[in-house]
Amino acid sequence: MPDEVKKMLLRKTFNENETILFAENENHYVYFLMEGKAEAYVPNLHGTFVNIHLYEPGSFFGELEQFYVGRKPVEISAMTPCVAYALHREDFFDWMKKDFEVTKLIIKEIAYKLITNSEYIEELSLLTVKERLLRCAANHYRRGDIDKLTKEQLKKEINAPIRSINRVIAECDRQGILSYKNQQLKILDIAKLQAYLR
Question: For labelling alongside 150, which of 17, 72, 163, 183 has CA 20 to 30 A away?
Answer without folding.
Answer: 72
